[in-house]
Each structure stands twice: as C-alpha cells, then as structure tokens.
Amino acid sequence: MVDTVHNAGEMSDAPDASIDTFPSQVTSPRLTLRRWHHDEATLLSAGVAASIDHLRPWMPWARFEPLTFAERVQLIEGWTREWEEGGDAVFGAFLDGEMIGSAGLHRRSGDRTLDIGYWIHVDHVRHGYATELAAALTTAAFGIDGVEAVHIQTDEANKASASVPAKLGFRRFSTTERVPEAPAESGRLIDWTMTPGVWATRAAPLID
Questions:
Q1: Nearest to 60 by CA among 191, 185, 188
Q2: pLDDT score, position 6
Q3: Which of 36, 109, 169, 200 is buried most, with the most CB atoms less than 10 Å from its CB?
Q4: How much of the chain exceeds pLDDT 90, in percent?
Q5: The whole model's pTM is what?
Q6: Cα distance between residue 44 and residue 27, in whole Å
Q7: Which candidate, 102, 92, 78, 105, places its Cα nearest to that of 19?
Q8: Domain ranges of the chain
Q9: Is 198 left (phi over 0), alpha (psi -120 to 50) or beta?
Q10: Three-state SS annotation for 76-108
Q11: CATH code of the domain occupying 25-200
Q12: How confident is the model over 159-199, as pLDDT tens digits?
C-alpha cells in the first residue's frame, strides 16, 4: 500500500502549462481505473470500512476514518475540482465492475515528476492488482508531455508495498528519515524511481 491522499484540504499548485491534464480513465488487462464520481461516495466508504484494519497501520489518512456521507461526497468533489484544474487524479480500481481499491497520480515531486499511490481492498490482496495498476499508471504517466520520471514512495517496514516498484523495475533512489505518519511506519521513506527510457524496455503492464 502506498498513500493515495484522501484529504480534501490538500490541493496541488496549478500545473506547468507544458504538462497535459491527467487521463480520466486508465485500463490494464484486468482492471479499469477511473476517476471517482460523487455518486460513488457510499461505494468508496464501504470499501474503506471493510479494509480499515488493513489500511490503518500504513495510511496516514486512515486516522480520519470513518467519514460521514457528506464528508465523503465533499472529498470526491474536491478530487474532481483538482483534476479539472490540471492537478492530481484519484481513481477507483474496478475488476469486472467490482471496486477492488483506489489509486492516484500525484504531483508531489513537481510537474515533471509524478508519484503513484495505491491501496487494495482487503478482499483482493495478493492477486497482483497493485502491481498491475501501478504498471498501467506508469505507462499513462509517460504518455503525458513533459513527464521525466515516475516515483513510488514506500515505508521501509511495508515490505508488501515495496515489492510493487521492485517487481516493476523501479530503482531505489533514496531513503529519507521522517517522523512516522501511521502506526506501523518505521519513519524511513524509500523513494523508488522510473524513467521513460527504462520503462520502454520493460514488458509492461506486468502481472504477478
């Protein structure tokens, strides 16, 4: 699991004019990733609630759960406004119409370097979905003009999450000490990086 921000108050700066707007939908062999719509608030809340014991150790935003229905709608509407303004995109991940997680493309590291975040519903872990959606989002990111690198950040203690960028051939770029933001975190943040040239040589999307 990698943090996909679920805080409606956090908005990215306006993107560089040379960077295209993020796609509204991304597909992979098994999955469809599409931006959340406000009428899916109950669906998203149910997925988070079912997975909360799985998410809380690693996801800083999980400490704010449960959200009310109105808060969830407001959150999704915030994601929509941000995307419309050229900012981040937060996607629901669907398998044959069933929600199996959530993912995001974020500008945390600047306009030319994008970050991928993801989490998988507890009922759907260990099926390679995180690897598959991360591969699909990496391909989508490099289809955007001006993007020079894609990053995935994982806490050193979260071995399952770190296995995703490792499987995809991301290079371990740096390790940063920070105050832990979730109960199980070590405080050592690993930054994994991929460049377009290296990605072009990979057989992506990769599935476990």
A1: 185
A2: 53
A3: 36
A4: 83
A5: 0.89
A6: 19
A7: 105
A8: 25-200
A9: alpha
A10: HHHHHHHHHCCCCEEEEEEECCEEEEEEEEECC
A11: 3.40.630.30
A12: 999 999 999 999 999 999 999 999 999 999 999 999 999 99
Q: Residues near 162 by Cβ (< 8 Å), separated by ≥ 6?
A: 154, 156, 190, 192
Specify the amino acid at residue 91: F
Determine the Cα angle at 162 with ends 98 and 94, to 5°.
10
Tally of residues, the chain? 208
Record the tokens describing residue 62, joined without a space.
């999980």
Question: Do 83 and 89 meet the contact criterion of CB atoms below 8 Å apart?
Answer: yes
Is 170 buried (19+), middle (13-18) or exposed (0-12) by CB count in 10 A? buried
